[in-house]
Model the fold of this input.
Amino acid sequence: MKKFIKFLCVIMAVAMTVSLASCGGSDEDTITMATNANFPPYEYKEGDNFKGIDVEIATEIAKKLGKKLEIADVEFGSIIGGVQSGKYDMGMAGMTVTDERKKSVNFSTTYATGIQSVIVKSGSKVKSVDDIAKMVKDGGKIGVQQDTTGDIYASDTPDNGGYGEDNVVRYKNGADAVQALVTDKVGCVIIDNEPAKSFVKANKGLEILNTEFTVEDYAIAIAKDNNDLLKDINKALDELKKDGTIDKIVAKYIPSK
Done:
């Protein structure tokens, strides 16, 4: 009998271990945000610390939910899959709501508006968005951060307003795409406007075209089977909008002119 009880206890212990190991995501006291910390001013790192608009908004959301925020810095292209599988609770990385992404995850209400801009070298023949097609026709390439909205739009077919995948060069992050522009490997870079400003400021001889490539909404990605979290996050965002917290955070990083 004693041997049987001991055996039973071992089985129960193993079962509990397996159960805990398979939970994924965060525990009840934390909420995990997947991001790509190479996207100033929305998310970036200073030393070991995460900074940016998304980081501060996520911190305020976590407070509303009574949880501690944990941040996972991953490649942008792996965020949706990680959220979908339950590895991360939410994805927040200046992420645009698109029909394709909505097939995999749900999105919160919009918390910010982004603009896709075009970076070129000063003196470039590309003076407007309309000139990109001619640059491509002449053999020039477009640099983008892989899996971002800039990539999605630029890689689309000409019939849908894009330039075709063969004319787009994908980089793991915006900084690499901009460096490719500096070294003449691409003729322009399509990227979100605020990061574009930071990259132009850090690299002499670059400028942003005055015309917008496209305008988009930013939202938080959440797993389709996590409706309770979606509801809680939307409630938190609504409160943060109404009390002016989000406006203050955005103004801190993007001062009005």
User: Anything to note?
Assistant: Residues 2-21 form the longest helix (20 residues). The chain is about 40% helix and 20% strand.
